[in-house]
Every structure is written in C-alpha cells, then in structure tokens.
Amino acid sequence: MHSMHLLFSVPKPFSYFIFHTHFLGFVLKSLIVYFSQLLLIVSAHQTGKCPPSLECGLLGQIQFPFTTTEQPHCGLLAIHGCQHDPSAPKTLQLGTSTTSTSYSVLKVEPRTIIIADDEQERYLRNKSCKAFSKNVTLPHTSPLASFRIKYNISIFRCNHSLKPSLPNYFHNYPNCSPEYDIFYAHPNTLSYTGFQWPSSLAPCSAIQLPLEGVPSEDPFQFLTGNIVVEVQLSHECERCLDGKGQCLLDTKGEFNCTTEPRNLAWKLGVGIGISGIVIIGLLIIWYRKPRCVFDFFSNPNPESASIYFGVPVFTYKDLVIATKSFDPSRELGEGGFGIVYYGKLRDGREVAVKRLYEHNYRRVEQFMNEIKILTRLRNKNLVSLYGCTSRDSRELLLVYEYISNGTVASHLHHHESGNHGYLPWLIRMKVAIETATALAYLHASDIIHRDVKTSNILLDNTYCVKVADFGLSRLFPLDVTHVSTAPQGTPGYVDPEYHRCYQLTNKSDVYSFGVVLIELISSMPPIDLNRHKDEINLADLAIRKIYKNAIAELVDPSLGFESNGDVKTQITAVAELAFQCLQQNKELRPSMDEVLEALKIIESRKDEEPSSPSSADHDEVKLLMNMKLPPSPKAAQYAGLKGNGVYGSSNCRKVTDLSKIPGNMCFVFQQVIGYVTLEVWLLVFRVNRG
Predict the structure, then answer these.
(1) What membrane topology does this protein have (predicted)?
(2) Residue 536: pLDDT above 80?
(3) Which residue among the candidates 117, 181, 451, 469 is catalytic per the annotation?
(4) pLDDT at residue 161 above 90?
(5) Cβ pair 533, 186 in contact under 8 A
(6) N or C terminus of the chain with fewer C-beta within 10 Å?
(7) What percent of the chain has pLDDT over 70?
(8) Is 354 annotated as a binding residue?
(9) What is the rounded CA–CA span in Å between residue 404 and residue 384?
C-alpha cells in the first residue's frame, strides 16, 4: 500500500521530468529513423543501373524517357553529343535504320522535346512546295510509350484535277500547281466530338506538319521547322517510375519493370534532411506546448486525421455518401483534370467535390498544387477550399464550397436551354470587375492562374464572382520576367505569345481575360466552327470588328446596345479595353491592375458623364488606341489583400482573416505545420519523379 501510495503521489516537477525524458527519447528515435532512411537511399544508389538524370551540356539535366547515346538503355530517345563540349550542338536521330534524319535539339522538358529540322526551315523560308513532302517519322508506339507532334496540322496533297468538295472552314493553297493542290483546316476542328475528315479527301495523301501560329491563307506563314514531340508514357510505365523502378522491354518486346532503386541519393537526401529539420523544430515546439502538437501527430492514419496540410480532411467514405456514389446526375462539370460533383455533407453543408482522373499521371501534382495555392489565399472572389482527402486515400478528392448559380459560360452560351437565367449588361459589368479583382489579387500574390475562362468563373445567388480551378496555376518568382514552360490552357484562351515562345507571364492571364470580356459583350463561344474560317477564334473575330469600327456587329443584340446610350458607351469602352488585352505582343497589353482600374472608370461613367445617343456614337468612333489607361497602382496597395481578405467594392459577403478567429490556438498552429509539411512533401514528391 505504501509503494502504491508513492506511485500516485509523485511530485509534479518529477512527472514533468519523466515526460521530457520520454520526449528526448522520441527526438533521438526520430533522428535515427531519418538518418537510416538516408543511408538506405545512398546504399540503393550504389546498386541502381540508371541514374535519375543525366548531364547534357546546355540542355541541363535530362531524365527518362530521354537519355544519352552513351547510355541508350536508360531511355527511349537518345540525344547525341551530351558528353562533348557543353556548348556543342546536340542532335536526335529519328526514322528507320535505313532512312533516318538528324534534328537539332533545342529544349528538353520532362515529357517533351523540341527539335529543329533545318532543311524544312529552308524550304519554308524559300516558299518551296517541297515543305509539304517533309514527313516526320516518330518512333512506333510500344508498351512503354507513344509519341506525337504536339502542335501539328494535317496537310492534304490532292491531284490538281481532283477538285474535292469541302466545307467552308477548309483552306486551299493552289500555288503548287500543276503538280497538286494543298488543303487544310484549323487544328481545333479535330477536337470536336464526331468530327470526320470529308470523304472527298480520301484519294489525297495526308501528312502532319509542325504548326506555329494560327492557320491562314498562306501555309508558309504558320508552318515551322521546330517540332514539339510529346512522349505519353503508358500507365504501367508511369506506375513503375512512381515506384522507383525502371521501364524496360524484355526479349519478347513486352513491358518489364525493374525494381532496383534509382539514383536519388543527394536529392532525396536533401528532402529528408529538410524533413528532419522540420521535425526537430516541431518537436522543440512540442517541448514547450506538448499537448497541442501531440494532438496533431497522435493519429498515425492521415485518412482519419482532422487536419492535413493545413486543411480539413474528409474520408473517402464520407464523400461517397455525400455524392451518392458519384451519381452521374449530380455531375456539375468536367475539366481537364477531373469531374466535379454536387454533394451534401452530414452536417448539411452543400459542397462541390472534384474527383481527379485516375489516368492523369500528374494528378498528385495538380492535387497538391491546388491545395498549396488555395490555402495561402483569402479573397471573396476566389472559391473556398473546404478540405480534401489524404494522399493515402483511395482517390484524390478536393472539396469546395458549392456555388449554386453555375458558371458564366453556362449563362452566356446555354441560357436558351433554360438551365440558367439571362445576364443583363449591369450583371456582366459586375462579373468583369469582380473577375479582374480576383486576377489582380492573384498577380499581387505572385500567382498566375493560367486557365482563365468563363467556365472557371462561378456565380452565386447574388451574382457575385468566384474564380475557380487552380490546377494549372503557377507561383511566379518576383525576380524573373517570365517562366519557361510548355503551353497549357484551353483553346481560344491561350496567349499566342505563350503558345509561340513558351514564356509564361502574368500578361498571359490578361490575354485570356480579354477573351472573357469579348464573351461578356457578344455571348459568343471562344471557338465556333460554324463561323467563317478566319473567325473561328473569337479573339480574331473581335480584333477585326473593333479595328474596323464595327463593334455593333460584335455585340449581343439583347443587351440594348442601340437603344440605351449608357450601355452603348460602356460596351464600346469595354470592347476597346479588350482590344488592348488581346494584343499579340505582351508588352502592349495592360497589367491586370490597370485593367481593373479601367473597368471601374468605365462603370462610373454613367454616373459622372450621362451620355446622349450622339455622345455614345462619338464614343464608338474612338478606338482603344486613343484611350489612356490610368497608371498602375503601387504594389503596396495590395499589401493588405492577404491580411484582411477583402478587396474592391461589392455587395458580396466579406471573408474574415482566419488568423483573427478566436478559439483553439492549436488549430492555427496545425495550419502552420500543415503548410510547412506541404512544402517539404512537394519537394520530396518532385524529387521522386526524377
């Protein structure tokens, strides 16, 4: 009894000492685990056959599916000259063993290589019809991968006497007579469901040629000798690489995945080292506030954890119930990376659940990218992220607030079907200002959206804007003028200079927003094959109409352009602003904050300068080239955006800064931990991919 009494009457300072002794033991165990992992990786490095990357002169580090001619077994496309002088030309051989062609290598990206055909460039420069005979022979599809020319156009060479009957969106180049005629259509034609080449082209020979720019009457203006070859790895090969394996073909030509670890020693060592530092830092904080941090790490199963990377975690089962097993009738929309479903949680909240495509090999990166961006932003015109499943869940799911009034695109292009109501001009002006507000906030936060379009602009019941879908968004460093990356986005919205030069800037969002402004004015879709072949792209159509002072032909007649002087004045000014946003040269486009200020001035015109029909006519005569935009606000004007979560004037509900919410400080601390852990996990994830 006496010893029992002593056991339960240990002085508090002594029990505190016992707790910290266990704590120090935990620290040592954690360090041992991390250093053991590092040693295992270094050991695995010694046994791997192929390194994760190879040095190739000025091209930098290249990775599978690319390799060097010195180690051809380590990839699918072997680049010659990597081991020579770094500045020496690098080449790639394509074709068969008897008829191969050597191409200069300009740039290598993870799944893309840009090569140059010097002979084709000469043909194009001299406007020689031999350019229409230069076919590019890509490697055959195998169990490992398939290959395609990313930006291409199908050219049909038809006998001069054939005279095929073709739709009006086909172009004809007759200057190769008397040998043959050339026929081609806009590449976007192929993206429409059910499209088939006209049967009258069957007797003609067809080849695919690399494309640069928008097709026009003269094929020598848009064809190029620079070829963007995209490698699409098979699902099995992607899984093999994700598991640190090496994709190979056996003696029968069938897929084989070696399980030997690849050379990730120093890169993963850095990742694990940083993780170890983070763990030590967290444990030091645990030492001072043990209970708070313990609550965060006490559950080893992230699927059942309440906070993950700073956002709440939902179980896969809960979201299956909320969406009624992803019932197709609850489908809200479909994007490039997944399908969005309507759901209702057990607590009664209505949500939108994005289910990422399983066949998309970049789904984890897009999943993490969207979480990373949305957790650092607080703005009333950006959609809110409620949470996600863990990365160990059966599927990657993102949970957003449900915006009940659909997308701007559904209102503009489908209101005749009765799905959504018609948008009057005042609402469209409000949509333009609030979308510009959201984009200006993103740019001030060093983020480029990269997929600005009306189907990513949501409307709530009071027609307040919520910009959504950040799967393609990029963080933009302050000390650079652009980020070099393969063009991504939606046809009709992609900045032509980004498409041509592979240089992403915040002016790329400005161009896309210019297309949105034209949609708000015209109610026309960005791509329409029923329009004249030179006006299939809405941006091209708008530039022609505005430049010819024919804005009235562009405007949706139901907006009251001819009957309301105020509406006419505003629409004319918005069209002229869109004209500046759609300039081919990014340097001629305004910044997003200049666009926002211009829209606010346009909106205020009806109050400050009441317009008569005559003054409105005068406004229409003036083109945007004569309109002086206000000076760009200082970056300091946006300094408070991240802090108070409120920007611009609107009747939308304001979002309060989360850091000022009273309550359990452990929740705030967990969000900080989650964000730091997310950064480390992203680093390790990228390293693991090669």
Answers:
(1) Single-pass membrane protein
(2) yes
(3) 451
(4) no
(5) yes
(6) N
(7) 67
(8) yes
(9) 14
